[in-house]
Records
---
Amino acid sequence: MFEKFSRRTVRAVHTAVRTAQQDDSPTIEEEHLLFGILSEAGPVSRRVLGSRITPEALREAFARARRRGDLSETDMAALRRMGIDVRSATAALEWRDEPRRARPRRRFGGGHRPFSPDSKRALSGAVAEAREMGARRIEDVHVLLAVLRGGGLASGVLTDLGLDYQAVRRALGGG
Amino acid sequence: MTDTTELVTAAAGADPADGLRAVAALRRLLEHLEAAQVRNAREQGWPWQRIAVELGVTRQAVHKKHRRS
């Protein structure tokens, strides 16, 4: 599957794996893919990501969402527009401060760290994005587009920071 | 009553993108709430069997999913 990935995209995925390791995360999440893309960004992805999306801003937005049971500001707004108020439920979670990630599952031999279902979808979605845009190689921005299209936590966090699918497509000149 | 009416109205006229995002968000939230509630019950000494009955699943299912948390 990786043979059509550009070198930059492969480097971004490697960085994502390393970031997951540093975070002691049992899986490689979309969040880690975004950190990978950000740290390996070239001229195109840098222009698309803009100045608001920094590692610090991402970390902070993900941490905030995690304390709320994996809900971004964008998710909260969508729920509100549906007439659903989850604030008291998420406040109870914040109070408990979720020990889930503080206790990573350690494996014997410890090498293998799988991609989460969401990040797997993002990587295969990137292939579709590249094809749709008529690109020869799968670039980091195609992974970014797939994350945004996926509708998971990471897409909500990016939307919180002012980036959405249509905006990225426009920035790439692909309508 | 008003809440129900508002909810129905919102659900009927809503942008599908909002509606679908809300559903996906609720699904994630649900997992966290379940984990937190099971943890709380365990801390209060509830046996797996009783937790399973309240959740409406088998004892094996709840044990397999939550024994590590």
---
Amino acid sequence: MNETKVGVFLSDCGNQLSQILDFDALVNHVKQVPGVALVVKASEFWRGEGLKTIVDAIKGKKISRVVVAESLPKLSEIRVVKAAEEAGLNPYLVEVIDLKDHCAWPHRDTPSEATEKAKAMLLAAIERAKLLEPIEKLEFPITKSVLVIGGGIAGMQTAEDLADLGIKTYIVEKSPFLGGLATRAGRFFPTDDCAICIQSPASDVKTITHTSRKCVYRSGFTEIPNLNILTNSRVIAVEGATGNYKVTIEKKPRYVNESKCVGCDLCTTVCPVAVPDEYNAKLKKRKAIYMNVPNVHPPVYVIDENVCKFHDCAKCVEICPTKAVELDQKSERITLNVGSIVVATGFQECDPSIVKEYHYDEYPDVITNLELARMIDGFGPTSGEIIKPSNREPARRIVIIQCVGSRDRRWNPWCSSICCMISLKHAMLIKSAHPEADVTICYIDIRTTGREHEYYYERAREMGIKFVKGRPSEIVHDPETDMLIVDVEDEILRRLLELEADLVVLASAMVPAEGTKDLADMLGIELDQDGFFKEYNAKLRPTETKRRGIFLCGGATFPKDAPTTSLHAHSAAMKATKFLSAGKVVKDQKTAVINEEYCGDCEFCPVTCPYGAISLVPKGEEHFVAEVSDLLCEGCGICVGTCPVNAIELRHARPNQMSAQMKALVSVNGTGKPLILAMCCSECGHTAVDSSGMAMMQYPANVRVMKVPCTGILQVHVFLEAFKAGAQGVMVVGCKSDGCHYEVGSQKAQKKVELAKILLNEYGVEPERLMMHNMVFIEGADFAEAAKTMTERLEKLGSLQLTDVS
Amino acid sequence: MTSYALFLGCTIPARQPHYEASARKALPQLGIELVDLDNMTCCAPPPLQSIDLETSLSIAAYNICLAEEADLNMITLCTGCFESLAMANTMLKQNEKLKARVNQILSSAGKEFKGNKEVKHYLQVLTQDVGLDRLKKSVTKDLSSLKVASFSGCHLLRPSALLKFDDPERPHVFDELIEALGAKSIWYRNKLKCCGGLLRGYADDVALAIAREKIVNTTKAGADCIVTLCPFCFLTLDLGQMLIKSAFHEEYNIPVLHYAELLGLALGIEPKELALDFHKIRLDKLLSEIR
Amino acid sequence: MVHEKDDETLRAGFSGEIKHRLGGETITLCYQCGTCAASCPVAKVTEKFNPRGVIKLALLGERQEVLSGSAIWLCSSCYNCQERCPQKVEIADVIYALRNIAIMSGHTPNIYSEFASGLMKEGRIVPISKFVEKKRTDYGLPPLKSAGVEAIKKILSTTGFDKIQWKKEGTP
């Protein structure tokens, strides 16, 4: 192998730093370091001539490692690394440090001390650079197709976008018809248009223009090229990994051939079995062979196998003019190979029987908002008439109760977020059809936070809908008058009211869809505390999950109204497209690597890895070793911090690299103060140091910053090594414990620090010498303060006397 | 015979010997032995909890300790006693820190709460130890013409998280026990709501207004009598009708009985054995309907 | 013994004071939905008591008004509200905590002084008349067992109950 030749490039940031740092001394210091082949000083290296100097040196084979001292906030690292790569040097052989924000500016009051610290920083970068190893780019082929789970408005819109973009798309819907909750809702707020109206596919078809919304049945949804629709189907197994999933679907028999049925309705006229229609709130009966409503999709009948008498009856088979009824259909297993999965399983209305004081399960005239929606729908079971289900008489005194089983710590603590608007919509639709109706909404808070939603509320008041601020304590059925009585306090009047009602409507909580937990387990993705699918990051990655290639949209993550669901659906489609478009995942191999000689038979790392990147594989008889997936590993090193036998390392933060860096940082003092090593994670911890420097907050130069991938990589022996090398104190600076970029890293570090405080006491290290800090960028002042406090504390403690335990 | 340490409390021996007499005579006929222990005190009910919760918990725990020492589970007649004792028993069994705090206090009286005994209301003993079948078979009188407005009182059911007696919104245990005797238990408005008894002595007018509502609702529903479990409810509804008469000039005369009395009558115990002369509202008509 | 503190200094901290007392732990969960008021049998017959109102006043730090007023003594401890509270505020227990603080601060209704003295003297809060005690034999009831007055006295002295100064303020 060729000799390692380090090129060191010192920027004085347009001569600013020369006011503080003695560059001549730095250059002389660096030149003496073994392995340094080139030292150049200029005013900047992140662009222009400076950058060209680096590129030329690489191209001229003068150097094989690059150390650049620049200002990090200027994106210098990205620019330099890219340029080096283009010049033919592996980007992982470049080390960039910041003499401005990490040294000159925060120590401008003590220039000679700053110069000494700069020497240490340069030495550390050089020593680390000498030990760096090239890291290769890996490519993982992926299957360019998507499975969308759920055929409600979220799933349909995502699938449509994906298919339009030329990606092979499957949509799996568990019920026999597409449309999900929306089809039952009838109308949507705030426009009061049909819920089943969707965007038109971009396909160039005579009846479809890109500007129009269309009824689902006219939308041509089923005709979109690349889109495969599987209704009456559910996911039963998922195998494989990112980019290449093998999904097993169970397609239940419909008993009606989709390609033969003409939807003539003759079958339902002869079917002798009638059961309460769940879809229509049991307000009417349906036959064993049925369609929910005439405008459903696909427009093909289905047989309810739980009630059909099959060959004992077979009247439908006899009458069907196209021989579409096939009573011997069996359920099928279908295997799909997809690169990506979008979860669009939505939410459901909670059964409000749990709120016993409202007697939903006892009183037929207590119904839910979704059931009311069926009554309001002209296609619904009452043809739009509002009735008392108990006797089918018209209901004219209607009380709607908000937050039923929602915002209720006994059941579902969250606000279901859409019920206020749903209830307002229902109240207004009733009032428009029946101006004489008396409609009262009992609420805790009216939440109309969307665009135009407040006007909707305003219109409801104009229409004479009554509002009572108060959550009812009980609904009582008076058997004498057959009336419902709602006990409620109007808080504004401070008066107890007994509202008389023909019909009470419960705005029942919106909860995770059935089967959410099972699906999450199958996909290996997380749920939040409320049981909804959890996104990777609510602010920045609202449609992604921790598993690359698995996306979320719509009500699966939280109850959403239609506009928000649309936004989410289109966003998920874009993310999935971005993931699939290259047909491969390209990723640097900055991953963990196992030393199989030491590894064996423990489960710490596979259990701890936040990305499920480590598995155990058999090695010989009854012996297991860990195996790292380079595709899933994010290179945080939390596994390293967990391994009890040091059998796992990061390629880009090997123990010898970290050790050399650490020793160099405390090799020069020159401040007369106790040396402190601040082990900062590469994310929030390091940015807190940036920001204190950017704001020129002053802290003493005895504080030396060592960047690690994540504080989760640290182990007790690393702290001991730091003290042995000469550090008098150690600060561990990680992300907030609930905001770690690698999920659990800073929590793990916290525990490690607590443990080290106990263990290192044996070596004479007082617990106060080791501190954990959790900081983010905007807390630069806290970093400066902590550095000062630690310095003072160490000065009081006096010099560290390490006990020789051996 | 299943033996229980009888916790009598204050109000029953002081004011309602008819409750005590009917229980002492009826329960042994069903195989329940009531054992009297020395040194029991007040259970520390809401009036004392209002003064100091920690002291009240300690007093309740002290009484449970007596049953623990006698190696007996405890039975209460009064619903108020049941609430204070069962609540303390559950809280201290669930919460180690609280238990340690209370045991520190109890050590001054030479006691230690261990948490190895149950506190049961006698309705629980009737359903769990005797059983509805045996109860039905033991009935010798015909109560079938009786329409009963059952009123369990608040503290049999609530706080349900600690008492775990019955479903607090849809209780059924008490009504089943009434129907087991042959009578009919009827629905009336606000059945589960309070009688106001605990406000007597502080705000008599408020207490009476609440009691009146209970009397009005049960009368409206056509009840022949109200059946209670708690001596406070009894007092509020029985004596209360006298007070309503003078305050509101309304006369209801709806008889109020403790369940133990109805049980005694159903088992065939002679009315004069049951000290029924302590009732303010006459029972003559009611007794004539029990054959 | 806690004495009445300067109202201003305690205003901010009253909900904290309640939270730290046995029974008062859940008060800050309240979001004022009024389920308690609608459940309350007392609020139904008098405007002097509204559990939601009491909690609101306490959360606003109106210590003096809460402790010296009659409202906290008008709860009938029926626990209806507590069962139904959607935020799991232990309302009846919060009222006990408020009553405990009120008594420590010298606001004791007469009837409670009577309960306390009965307990301290006889170990029972309802005195037993000679008349009823004699009648027991007529009904075939066994003689009454004696109450553990000594044990009660020791417990009361340990918790400081016997040192509470029973100001006779009368019914507020």
---
Amino acid sequence: MTQTDLVRSELESLVETIDVKTHFKTPRGIARAVDGVSIQIRRGQSLGVVGESGSGKTVLSRSIMGLLPRNGVIREGSVRYRGQEIGNCSDKEMQSIWGREMAMIFQDPMTSLNPVMKVGKQISESLRKNLGMSANEALAVAEKLLHDVRIPEPARRLNQYPHELSGGMRQRVMIAIAMACGPNMLFADEPTTALDVTVQAQILELLSEQKRDRNMSLLLVTHNLGVVAGYTDEIAVMYGGKVVEKAPTKTLFANTKMPYTEALLSSIPRLDQPSHSRLTTIPGRPPDLVNPPKGCRFAPRCAYVRDLCLNEEPELEQADSPDHTYRCFYPVGSPEYLERRVELTRKGELVASEGSN
Amino acid sequence: MAGTGKAHLRDDQNVLLRVEDLVVEFPIGRTGLKVNAVSGISFDVLKGETLGIVGESGCGKSTTGRAIMQLPSPTSGSIMFDGTELTTLSGEAMREARTKIQMIFQDPISSLNPRRNVRDIVLEPLSIWKRGTTAEQLAAVDKILEHVGIDPQRAAESKPHQFSGGQCQRISIARSLVLNPQMIICDEPVSALDVSVQAQVVNLLEDLKKQFELTLVFIAHDLAVVKNISDRIAVMYLGKICEVSSSDDLYRNPAHPYTDVLLSSIPVPDPTVAVKKVVVDGEPPSPVSPPAGCRFNPRCPNASDRCRSEEPTLREIEPDHFVACHHPLTGGEAPVSVHFK
């Protein structure tokens, strides 16, 4: 690969998935956790993957990183990293990618850290293994990393165990571990869900700062659209194993097409609404991934559902702006949508969303 | 000692719960040290009102909720519930009093017994207190399950693991309602749920509150949720109350710098709103040795020498809006009191 080729490929995409499917064999049948997802992440860009529990967002990030068990998993489609196929790599081949090229931060910082190993050792482990540092070199780098993630008294922390740290500090240690070998691609799976709001804001700030300083790409998995709004360039909304809407962050919020995205947005309690205002809910539950509904997977819960939605599955449509795609027959703003909306408002079923729009 | 003050307590016939100078301390082994979980807080809740208690982990909000239930009994202070002083009740009398105050916990799945079917879980309070005949009890259970949106037929056949997190929380709510309590203490009831489900549970609590004429104490760390459901909010920090106000007023006009921090940390679901720079760093200090003066002073952007030595008392800065701060964001400086220790 020549220098110009390299530059071009980085402009194009660092990570690309084409029609990735990850299905699990379960006693009840095959669960289609991820069912044909194509996304691209460019260098230095951040993508938010949003959805409810069971939408496949976590499985997607693990599929890209190759962190799923071999047994009982059916994998299809292609995962490319810098243009090279890594979807079929063995764990051994992936070891050169894990840590140095891609790293992951998990949701629960308590269970993801080893409780009987000192923090310093946990951070220096990958430095020694991947970069061949000596124990002392690695500890020195670990101290610098702890300093970078703003842990007070980093030298003392190296000799502490995870239980001696608070939840926010443990998450910072996780970030330090993920950053240790300077990855180009960072996956953060609900990195702030277990944390207080004040600490959440600090951690998100830290992640976007690290992303900027290291020109790293970030895939942020979360169920909270509020979290991704301020910290991502692009958002993919997942439902029932599929991406149902994808757009640059500003476009997604300003020009929402998919009723599911709209429903997710309006169910967030907002500070600018008076108290006791009725929250918009999404009735029902996410679909059964073993027997997903025929047609649009969101149709059974959608307020704007019509016969066509129940029988045919919508293809990915292109919205007005080039990077904006969605899966819906009657998107927000279409005549059928508006007609139904008038009916719903008359029946008084749309209350809170009126105020927010 | 400058206390947290009681200026905000109301002299009203309708006060259902009145907590005064509540202190909860936990000794640490034989070290002689103690965790100051709650350090002298006072608040009241009127009949039919929802009081929200917000704060970060470790601020003592859950401990406060549990202290009301005498789980465990507080170190000192008074808890008057519907004319009865709960702290001095005997074990048996307290057991009876707890039928009127029920609690809902954060993790809906682990707060239900995994080996029993759901109908039995909801029925248990009735059978313990021998309320009515078995047929009447079953009818009451089915009715309450329908109220919370759980199919009674399915409940009779299923165990908790067969329900989703949101449904388990509905079951917990049904269990707490079955004895017809006057008050429910909700300890982070929606923080483990997806946003869409969270909205369902919040709406459900609002509906049930009206139907059953309940009084709620709603404990959570997410100010957006608390604001939506509460009439009045108490903001807690490290075992103390910083600010008490009606919920709309608190959002419009936060007076305590800590309230402002909490409000500005909430991510706004709108990319055109610039992300606010985090104004405080770090996390609350250890409640084993809380800082002198105002407990927020080490993290406060406006801290002065006075904040480091003199503890602020709650005072009214506008009608029904109380703040414990020397230099609040609105309402002017606290008058310097002639005060010697």
---
Amino acid sequence: MKHAFLVLLCLSYLSTAVAQNKYTISGYVEDAKTGEVLIGANVYDQNTLLGTATNTYGFFSLTLPEGQVAFTVSFVGYPAYVDTFYLDRDTQFTLPLASSFDLDAVEVQATKVNRIEEMTQMSTVSVPIEQIKQLPAFMGEVDVLKALQLLPGVQSGNEGTSGLFVRGGSPDQNLVLLDGVPVYNVSHLFGFFSVFNADALNSVQLIKGGFPARYGGRLSSVLEINMKEGNNKEWHGEGSVGIIASKLTVEGPLIKDKASILVSGRRTYIDLLAQPIIKAGFASDGGSGSAGYYFYDLNGKINYKISDKDRLYFSAYMGDDRFYFRERIRFSEPGYESEERFGGELTWGNVTSVLRWNHQFNKKLFSNVTAYYSRYQFNTGVEDGIKETENGVTTEEFFGLRYFSGIDDWSGKIDFDWVPNANHYVRFGASGIYHTFRPGATQFEADFGVGSALDTTIAGNNTRAGEYRVYFEDDIKVNERFKMNIGVHGSAFAVDNRWYYDVEPRLSMRYLLTDNLSAKASYARMSQYIHLLTNSGVGLPTDLWVPATDRVPPQRSWQVAAGLAQTLANEFEVSLEGYYKVMNNVIEYRDGASYLGNANDWESQVASGKGWSYGAELFVQKKTGKTTGWLGYTLSWTNREFMELNFGEPFPYKYDRRHDLSIAVVHEINDNWEVSGTWVYGTGNAISLPLQQYRSTYLGDGNDPFSSFYSSLSYYESRNGFRMRAYHRMDLGVTNKKATKWGERRWNLSVYNAYSRLNPFFIYYGSDDFGNPAFRQVSLFPILPSISYAFSF
Amino acid sequence: MKSIYFIILLSFATACELVVPIDLPDQEPKLVLNGFLEADSGATVFLSRSYGMYEEFDIDPVPGGQVTIAENQGSAVPMFQDRDDSLRFDLDALTIQPGNTYTVEASAPGYETVRGVTTVPQRITFDTVEVDLGARRDRDSVLFDVWTLHLTDPPGEENYYFLRVYLDTDIENYLICFETLDPVLADLDVLNNGNDVANLCEGRFNDVIFNGTTYELQVFTEAFYRQQPDATIEFELLHLDQAAYNYLLSSERQFNTEGNPFAEPAIVFNNIENGFGIIGSVTSTTYRVEL
């Protein structure tokens, strides 16, 4: 059976070649004004309705039979390009598309090919960056991940945070790729902001299931974010000034039409604004010093067209969060002087850099070679030093303590796109990652002035591991109605002389029921060889990546999904999907365990178990016209089961959310005014609450006549057996745009939580205003208006 | 690391709080039976009742409460309520014996009868104790004596221990704290929380890594202690049954995570049928070293 299938596959590659003359049109699609490649642009022939889409690098290859073609290229926000000609030879060109913003009164319409019902891929959502930037801002900042939280199947976790919980998975199960490089910590300020600066981004795509074989390494989602390449025609820039942060992006040609550069930066400045007050505070205590918090992001990208067949890209990202405080206290009296210095800091952040080389071997074979480095690091430290001079004799003492942890990746990979004919789109490749896990080390430095300085590091043993992957996938057009994407992903992981491996089959299918309605189904098996130790759910920097081990084996999952997709009235993409996902070897902290620095003993702190999630998702999206946006609704159940937790009984996952509804709308009133709004509703998070309280005891209770020590213990019947109040919130925004001599300026007024709903952040047991026992809910953000000024030139 | 909590708390400074009514399922109050039976002593247990979360927690005696104890397959014998502490029930006439099984039962009008069972662990002593005086100096140049305690663990069973160190002088006998780098004793939480050594006033450990073999525990006590006149160091080894160990560990975890919204609450071990609490047992031996 297996051999028969292979023979059929081979024949299908060859069949069209012998039937009649075929020629290939290949090349790149890019923005006419900026030279930016357009990812996912539709390329097709209106006569045969054969088509394809540009890949991540804007490349396409379309093989058609000899004859008259109505060659069409379309992309959201751009009017379709149509060229009719007689195809009798292989053709290659770069096609510049003019944006609708640059044309007068162009009605942009969705195109027939590669509409949602045409695509084999399911459970995939792409939201245009421009649409994300039009949504209401939070403290003056628009956030890519918060926009994605509004999609069906994606839960938002705690209030205000940017973590993504996709189809019952945890945030560590998301493969977040920035220009193809995994980013380990996507949060600033405990998750209230993500590390992605929307001004520097080109495209965002989230895959929740039916994963093509080219992706692997995480169980629950793939979030592929691509940075802009930089305008290769002329210099431009954009930026904004908000209440907590400002950002600036500059891009332009290094060599016109051949090489471009983009540099983007963002920094918060509360620390700078508050510095005079903080310094005055130190001064009032008789000392001097400073303290504050900030985060920053720096993105840079250079791309160079070596030739029509070769392109080189280098991109880098660097971002940190930093808390710091420094204090100096001087004291003097006759015969004695002292100066004490005290300081500390808490710093965490990512660095990624990637070099990619695209090469077009021929009109049908495209390759990309990638080498990258990714690092997440967390550092904290305090130091205390004193210098004393007494009667002319000076002594110095110093004590320093530093804790650091993180993960480093070096990786190389090669990917091929091979388009043998219009019925096949083959992708294959291989990759290797060299991980270095730094599970937490504490370093002491001390010099007490007695001649025996100490400088020592404990628990700093790094763990090194190799992760290897190969894949093959083919997007096959079986006939006019039936398409499938079939593939296999092989993975292996080597750590501590132990090998883990898996073969992960992938399958997606779509069948056209009518011209604009299709049925889809998919199956995907995934493996994940790294775990994230976290029990906060808020993205604390202490969250720690650790490798799979004998006691905590790799996570595995399988997911099936089925659904319907349709484009209504040529404007509304509608999809309805059901899914069932099983995750094995997921980890949770044992009862009472709390991560703070116990990295070396982490295996004994966690329990390994099983999770499963199932549900249905409805998604209605409108990407074109004056009013755009989407509606997403999810009905889902997510459970966990661990032998060692909850007496072995299944319990709801913390972010199990029965109902989750999101509405996002952007409306352009005219050329100058734009309004936007979002509304979200979600079932309350699951929590554990005590039902009764009773007297505790201890060894020796009653033996000590002077001791009356006892306390109350709480009785919990089950884990996550209760629900917080439902979460709902409305955000509103209004933007005024105006063309200026130098470009455009925009004022945006946004209101977060417009009707000031007190949404639960956590609940604790305390007392009410009259001293009676009661549960109290803590909420983070009431109504929060913000204003920002943005400009582009 | 604690600064992280501080930072989070700072962000909560702007937070809003409100009392939320939460419908808890109806829970009948249950009897709470607590007691660690100590070998070579009389039996003592405590009887109280549980309270709902919306009730003011208190420690009131249970009206009409009665407690009995049975040894092995023997008949149940009533225990006597203490006159001063009405939660306490004693039976001095009974001497708890290692290896015996005791069943403690309590009842009161309006409550389900509750019951707990424990088998008293065998007596285990340190084989030998060696000391290397002043062999360790910490980073503050404080001098420590290094003690090596040899313990032979009974094979074929899981054993649970507590270690306490006392200083006995002419004037008083009191519990002293000690330091250790021993992986069996040192809670790695402590080591990694920024300390180069674990400082403990009570060491708890089990035999997972040395079951059935002789193990050498190493602890450090400040040399200062032995400089006191007629000082004697006592090493008390408490051998607990598994239920007692689990209860003490889980209740400590619950205390430690109480009020931490980012930690999963710990469920406390309970071996009382139809009620709450613990009936555990412990055997204690002491090794004295005169200095």
